[in-house]
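Homework help board

Subject: predicted structure for assignment chain

Our instructor gave us this sequence and asked us to write out the predicted structure in token form, then describe one feature. I got the tokens but I'm not sure how to describe them. Can anyone check?
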Amino acid sequence: MFLTRQAIIQAVTDGDVVIKPFHPENLSPNSIDVTLNENLLLYTLEGGCLDMKRDNPTTKIVIPPEGLVLQPGTLYIGMTNESAISHRYIPMFEGRSSIGRLGINTHITAGFGDVGWGFEKSESGEVICHYPTWTLEIAVVHPVRVYAGVRIGQVYFVEPKGEVEWYKGKYSKQRTPQASCAYKDFAK
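My token output:
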């Protein structure tokens, strides 16, 4: 079951959904629009390719006020300005149709959030929220100028069925564009 606008507002009021900063004008009938942060990462290709077993180096770039032209064949790691998470519902990210119609892909495969992503319980049982932002894997089909602060995607919330377990993975505390941490999977 997907939460509607009123259900999202109620879940924010009840503390079951955290959207920070929360801009009610960005609510749609069953989602909330999130905006593009000015910070992006680009992979530095050492040896001509990325290596899944390595922490691949990146270069930080900032979208200037006049915008930045994204180029095809380049992966831009971005992030949202907002944290839109829940310890009760499954948060999901999708691109907005207006953005997709410009040939901008905002997430290659990572549109799925997890219940409890960004939350943890202290030893005393206190719930701690880390306010993580959504990482965006941005690719374009032709050159497109983008601007920081544009509504880039939407987050919606789905009610889970069954016992809820909180996410405890490597991306729980991300507050900057986050490159792949797949290399950590090889260390196990």
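Reply (TA_rk): Your tokens look well-formed. For the description, you could write something like this. Residues 5-182 form a domain with the Deoxyuridine 5'-Triphosphate Nucleotidohydrolase; Chain A fold (CATH 2.70.40.10). That's the kind of observation they're looking for.
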